[in-house]
Amino acid sequence: MNQEFKSGFVSMVGRTNVGKSSIINKLVGEKVAAIANKPQTTRTAIRAIVNRENSQIIFIDTPGIHKPKTKLGNTMIETAFGVISEVDVTLFVIDATSEDIGRGDRIILDKIKESKVKTILIINKIDLVTKEHLAKLIDLYKDEYNFQAVIPVSVMKNKNMEIILDEIESNLKPGPAYYDTEEYTDQTLRQLVEETIREKALRLLDDEVPHGIYVETEKMKLRKTKSNEEIYDVEVTIYCLRDSHKGIIIGKSGNMLKKIGTYARQDLEKMLDTKVNMKIWVKVKEDWLNNENLVKKFKLQ
Fold first, then answer.
1. Are 92 and 82 in contact (CB under 8 A)?
2. What's the Cα-to-Cα distance from 252 to each of 205, 214, 284, rounded to whole Å?
3. Please, is 78 exposed, middle or buried when counting C-beta atoms within 10 Å of its C-beta (0-12, 13-18, 19+)?
4. Which residues contact 292 (CB under 8 A, 6 or more apart)?
5. pLDDT digits (tens, 9 = 90+) for 135-187
6. Domains of the chain, first to last
7. From the centroid of its chain, how far is CA 263?
8. Residue 81: per-residue pLDDT
9. CA atoms within 13 A on the CB side of 86
10. Most buried among 13, 216, 235, 298, using CB within 10 Å?
11. What is this structure's pTM?
């Protein structure tokens, strides 16, 4: 007898730098969310799709919970909390090295309690702690909320990742496939380009600079070369907050910008399975973090 097909939306919430985007990318098997060892890497709600034999799971990766200092920061927090009450299941990701329930985790817990949503607790980075420490942390959180499940994982060691999908599927209701089974994200190609370039900037630039940038795809056109090969012509602008940042992004003799572009192009060519011809410009747009019109683009659609 065939099992009834299930589908649903799953939010991924947690403080900054607990590994939410890494978990999503590992579960999907494709790079759909920017990953960098820096806080506030994710700025908007990114949907990633996992197609299984009897289910379709749509993940929504949200910005990490942090103390906002700009309009963009406020928008990111609104997006993260707004998703919790509108999904079928929430994955609450915490860091296994935590000693107790910190302020950020407490705020998220309160939102989960308020929404009464089905929640699975994911404890990431278990490769960094002892079994005794992990057991204490599990007890601490179990006293706070009736989680559907508590799953200790390690993205780095690829441990227990499939268990997450099994547990989510068991908590979904029967439903249709919302997306084509070949799709793994609802991001447009332009958004994938922007996320990929921003991720490289986050990885390569000094701490102060990358969070003051945003990337805009000005042009993306598929054409055929004289030898009949397909190639994407992509033109992108990186906006930053001040001239000194512009100099750092470009680098001596343009070396930093060239490095960002090369790494981004290599990733995109793998994703698109097509050659990419990329041009990147850097422009200054002061205080864009508080520009209402620009910040709108980061709101949950």
1. no
2. 13, 21, 18
3. middle
4. 71
5. 999 999 999 999 999 999 999 898 998 999 999 999 999 999 887 777 766 56
6. 6-174 (3.40.50.300), 189-298 (3.30.300.20)
7. 19
8. 55
9. 13
10. 13
11. 0.60
